[in-house]
Amino acid sequence: QVQLVESGGGLVQAGGSLRLSCAASEPRYAMGWFRQAPGKEREFVGSITWSGGTTDVADSVKGRFSISRDNAKKTLYLQMNSLKPEDTAVYYCVAGTRYKATMANDYDYWGQGTQVTVSS
How many angstroms separate the most distant Cα atoms in the chain? Predict the structure, then answer.
């Protein structure tokens, strides 16, 4: 069983930045981020391989968000820049074994989520 704990969410103005962190009890998994806005389906944001050598981000956040990890600290990061009101959502940290997975069902472990709110 892998425990994932997100932090770093909050309220920010449009154009601002936030960095989300996810502490993992066991880092030897591919990891990623999903988000879910009210009334919408859960959406893939980005993923990173266990080594950190390969990352993937959704087209909706490409050029603004980046994903990284520090396995020595057992921590996953999501750097979010140029935030827009449409980025408002609960952001979830995930872990699994599939390479470059983009579907929610591909991930075995989920954190509790952290709220990100972007005001206009």
Answer: 39
CA distance 15 to 22: 23
Using DSSP's 3-state secondary structure scheme, residue 89 falls into strand
What are the beta bridge partners of residue 47? 32, 56
List pLDDT tens digits, range 75-87: 999 999 999 999 9
SS3 annotation, 35-82: EECCCCCCEEEEEECCCCCCEEECCCCCCCEEEEEECCCCEEEEEECC
Strand partners, 90: 36, 115
pLDDT along the chain (120 residues), means of 10: 95 98 93 96 96 92 97 96 98 93 95 97
